[in-house]
User: Fold this.
Amino acid sequence: MGNMIKTIDVTDSLTNLKDACDLENGRISGKIFYDKAIYEQELEKVFARCWLFVAHESQIPKTGDYITTTMGEDEVIVIRQKSGGIKVFLNACPHRGNKVCFAESGSTRGFICNYHGWSFNVEGNLVGQHESGVYEDSDFDKSKWGLKEVAKVDSWKGLVFATFDPESPSLQEYLGPMTWYLDALFDNQEGGTEFVGGCIRSTYECNWKIAAENFVGDILHAGWTHDSAARAMLGGAVAKVSDFEESYSVNWNGHGYEFALDTVGNVAVLGESALNKYLHTIKPSVAERLGDFRSNMIGSVSSCTIFPNFSFLPGQNTVRVWQPRGPNKIELFTWVVVNKSAPEDVKEKWRKGAMMTFSPTGVFEMDDGENWEYCTKTAKGRVTSQQDLFVGLGMDTLLTDTPLPANVYEGQLNEANSRAFYQYWFDMLNAKSWSEVPDRNLGKKEAE
Amino acid sequence: MEKVFLCKVSDLAENQVKKIDNSDHGDIAVYNLGGQYYATADLCTHATASLAEGDIEDDLITCPVHWGQFHIPTGKAQGFPCEIDLRTYPVEVEGDEIFALIAVDQALIAKG
Assistant:
């Protein structure tokens, strides 16, 4: 047996958060992007409790296949078991705490610590040490000193999530009706999806929430921020989002998805017409599988964040985690997702297209990075950090008579998802236990 | 020279290794490499580990604990952390039965 992690003590919440986060009035302040005390609370009350994306099933198909990543700032190993299941361990030796795995990914029979030769198998069990005799002479109980295993691991359509908190709701409950929307990208063809290529890692000097919130519901920036990049890729401007006849912002538990129903608006910016064609080709079968509505979402102008820091763009097919590295720094991990059943040349075009647009040198990513870094850096000023910032668009746009699941708001040029994201963040920071997290969901749990 | 019964040929598939408990001489690992049988001490010469729980790669056995390797036919240690060679025993097959031939002085060393 590996050994279950010890849960951490929950410290008292900060008392003055309300001043920095007043969503009923559509206000936040820059303080939440720069304050060290708030960041320490986030590591404990958000990242040590929420479900966090750790891997895609396709990255670790066989026994002993692993990847390393982080949950908050905690380094973890995600490894396929002989049973077919997946375990997630702290990437730290239980003897002196040294890191046991230095590779980003691979396939192994186990992990041996560099320090004293403690050796762990795929199941996380301690199987021996250098100078094993001295441990035997000390009545050392090997079974108690395996790699520390996180509380829960579960997956949805190939996306593997883990949580440090045994008291957290189930993944299904945590995601709620957002899974209905996730399926538009992650389950639109038989066989599901896979990641192609490796993990692209880069750093930004921005707060993780700025990036996560951009994907949760900010298409508003695209027409302005990305104009020159769009002209380079498309030969024209970004689609005028306010011209779309029908679009939505939907959210649940702080997760959010904003989308139009134009099928190929996102994929078009990769500049690969074969990809538009592919989506048009599969669209009828998607409609059969998921219904007409979601067949319009497979590559449309859209974006999504699953709280706290897992995001993706349908169409561009970039999947990412904004790893927190202090209040004013993130490490960005990105991957490219494709349908397993897609032709190989289509997969390759997606990989290349994502590199051109949403990699460290990608034309859209560079535009975003500059903005996010300065949204963070201005909050360094003590006075600036306490001024109100406006998050008030679309205050009265909740749709109550829609057949769609989750909390549904009219229009994607709308800050409803951003407010819901910050509200859930605020609620998590104020809750000492899951039972204290208020249920602010107003919408339906299932589609009609 | 003592003749010690290890196991039946039919109980040891190709490219498999099996641990034979032996309190007199120390546990013995018996191998079937493509129809050729070999026997070595089962205890790794580096740290506490049963080599029979390790993996065979060509004619090498990989220790399950620190992944050091030994050459099965000769017992030769392949490098850090396994630097002391493994005791090997001549093997005799009679019908369906596999035996190890253990010299008395060898047996004393193997027992440690």
User: Anything to note?
Assistant: DSSP finds 13 helices and 23 strands in chain A. Residues 223 and 239 of chain A are 7 Å apart (CA to CA).
